[in-house]
Amino acid sequence: MRVAALPPLALYVHVPWCVRKCPYCDFNSHGVGRGAELPEAEYLAALIADLDADLPLAGGRELVSVFIGGGTPSLMSAAFYRDLLDAVAERLPLAADIEITLEANPGTLERGRFAGYRQAGINRLSLGVQSFQDHQLSALGRIHSGRDAVAAVEEAREAGFENLNVDLMHGLPGQTPALALDDLERALALGPEHLSWYQLTLEPNTEFHSHPPALPREEVLWDIQDRGHERLQVAGFTRYEISAYALAGRRARHNLNYWRFGDYLGIGAGAHGKLSVPGLGGHAIERRWKTRQPDAYLRRLHDPRGFVAGREGIDAEELPLEFAMNALRLTDGVPLSDWQDTTGRPAALLLDRLAAARKKGLLVEDAGRLQASPQGLLFLNELLASIDTSG
């Protein structure tokens, strides 16, 4: 079956370098040390060629958002992003209200760089603060201080950024509820429009996984989460995703497109994309990923094989879980009509796979929506496992 109408399209750009690999990080990031000279011109040329190769997949759609992640994208110059975004605009139509986000770390900023990013066309910043406590930052392997984080927010405001996300972790080594709430209070005092507040997890292939630190007990983690959620509500933030909170009108458009199973092109070393491709070998949807290692990615610029390292179609049996893994992270879920619109598949295929989850009380009883119940949000992995094994 073919997709009747293509979903919205976004662009993800990956910058793989960072000053130092954090012990909890499982992203495609490669530490280069302070003061390293990065191959900006070569990487820019590769990104543009990568985008050119993917353009046929855009299907004439405009971009609703651009997200530049890493690694540490704030290691690159403002001129790099000006030239990149100019190249994107020459190749794809941009929505009039397009959201263009750059991830930045407080410890990698030179004075005045934010102003250059804003002039380049970036209109949203996501600051990787993680904590304002210096001893916690040290335990996480971060290279900035709490004071650096405050200074970064102040400079972003001076540069004209009116849409700012602060990334905060909780459940840190030795963290108490009082320390976790203090981090939230310090973040709220800076007046961000958006907060990503998520629990530290020990991911495979990380230093923390190999040498686990002593983390708070489960009952402490629940206490932190409950008290933090209540505090954010009082401050006017709505929790719209498992770990995302926003003021009214400030939900991250790029992430919403992702969670609603929209399409996105992925360019850069190790970048992933998800595209609706009607008629592709019987599959409606394809995932593809690019060469992971930065040096190997740069060599692909002159390689007739291009930048794609792998691709796979999502068949009908996999679609319900793939769709639900994203949609059910949203606290208010999605209309069931989104299933038909974004996959081109009959509603019965999804509803059959939801039956077991509904019986367990993990879904809201609403014939028109796919939405996790409060219990389902607390036990999202169980909910997804129920969908994966039912039907």
UniProtKB/TrEMBL annotation:
GO terms under cellular component: cytoplasm
Presence of keyword 4Fe-4S: yes
Annotated GO MF terms: 4 iron, 4 sulfur cluster binding; coproporphyrinogen oxidase activity; metal ion binding
Main location: cytoplasm
PROSITE patterns with a match to the protein in the record: RADICAL_SAM
One Pfam short name: HemN_C
Protein name per its UniProtKB record: Heme chaperone HemW
